[in-house]
Amino acid sequence: MTVTTIKKPESKVKYSTPNTTSILKDSGLCQAKEYFRHKDVILFEGDTLNEYLFNREFIDLIVTSPPYNVGIQYNSHKDELTYEDYLEFSEKWFRNCYKWTKPQGRLILNIPLDKNKGGQRSVGADLTTIAQKVGWKYHSTIVWNEGNISRRTAWGSWLSASAPFVIAPVELIVVLYKDSWKKTTGSRVSDIKRQEFMDWTNGVWTFNGESGKRVGHPAPFPRELPHRAIKLFSFVRDVVFDPFCGSGTTLIESANNNRIGIGVEIDKHYCELAKNRILNETGTLNFEKETNKPKKPNNGVFPKTSQQKYSASGNR
Ligand SMILES: C[S@@+](CC[C@H](N)C(=O)[O-])C[C@H]1O[C@@H](n2cnc3c(N)ncnc32)[C@H](O)[C@@H]1O
Fold it and tell me: Which tens digits make up the pLDDT trace of 39-63?
């Protein structure tokens, strides 16, 4: 009798296990000006639309909130493109980030559900479709309930079925990946706690938005958002990237959670702001020590914050 040994088929794709720390020493990584570095974080002053900004795949996890095109008064970025131009802008940066991401890399994308000002648009659905068009694969969507119901004023036709407006005080956090969802490379060390894993794998996240006034940027997200994304979707020492770094929130959480953080921001003024925040807010391993401690919702209803991030759909 012949005995045949059946060999487990080898995976077609061979992934190397790069030493992620080495990218911190690599002066050729980025074409843009290095604005600042601290601990394991580097901030570049540059344009994410420049396809030659980086010359290789180096990203394990992107956590970002791109401009929403809702007329926010940024220092230099014009946030009022036509919708068609905005979709073109989005396609460009999706494509660039795809090129710079490792095969098992992920994109955690904070975007609006929809837009009501200047015409109703399904922004979340449109951007998710474009991301897939350039190659990103869809995994799931987290609904972020930022509790911003207090400023809701646009009812449309009040008490009439003529033309009422339905507005959801939520934003989306779309979870995408490059080639394969299963991560087999990197340190393979996860630092998420049992309760956090159970809570955060529930696709409705409830915490307050950030105050633009407090941070000094017109559209920051709260530290809780990259904090959760980093711990849930990356391994310790992975390279976390934010192509629209703003006030540096993603980099702060990267540094505080033992990841390598790389950020790009086009505006020098926000680079300086991010630098100061990184200097002041890294080292606080327990982010709840910050003044920005998220307020606990009481039966799902949030206490009002003085001035929250640009509002959810209601005021867009
Ligand atoms: C929504 S904000 C990001 C806020 C960030 N998540 C935070 O917590 O502060 C978008 C940022 O993208 C920047 N930006 C706009 N166009 C850019 C580009 N082409 N390349 C790099 N940054 C850009 C803007 O200046 C703005 O700071």
Answer: 899 999 999 999 999 999 999 999 9
Residues with CB under 6 Å of ligand 1 are 47-49, 65, 67, 74, 77, 217, 219-221, 244, 246-247, 249, 264-267, 270
Residue 294 alpha carbon to ligand 1 centre in Å: 23
Which neighbouring-strand residues pair with 37?
Answer: 42
Calculate how far, in angstroms, residue 188's C-alpha sits from the geometric centre of ligand 1: 30
Instruction: For residue 10, tell me if it sits in a domain.
Output: no
Asked if pLDDT for residue 306 goes beyond 70, the answer is: no
User: Ligand 1 pocket test: which of 74, 75, 77 has the largest number of ligand atoms within 8 Å of its C-beta?
Assistant: 77
- The CATH code of the domain that includes 33 is 3.40.50.150
- Average model confidence (pLDDT) across the chain: 86
Q: Work out the pLDDT band at 203, boundaries 50, 70, 90.
A: very high
Average pLDDT, integer, range 14-41: 84
Amino acid at 222: P
Counted domains in the chain? 1
Closest CA to 108 of 20, 232, 22: 232
Query: Any idea which residue has 């300086």 for tokens?
Result: 272
CA distances from 240 to 40, 72, 178, 218, 257 (A): 11, 26, 15, 23, 11
In a domain, 68, yes or no: yes
Q: Does residue 296 belong to any structural domain of this protein?
A: no
pLDDT tens track for 144-171: 999 765 556 678 889 999 999 998 999 9
Any domain includes 21: no
Show the domain range for 114. 28-285
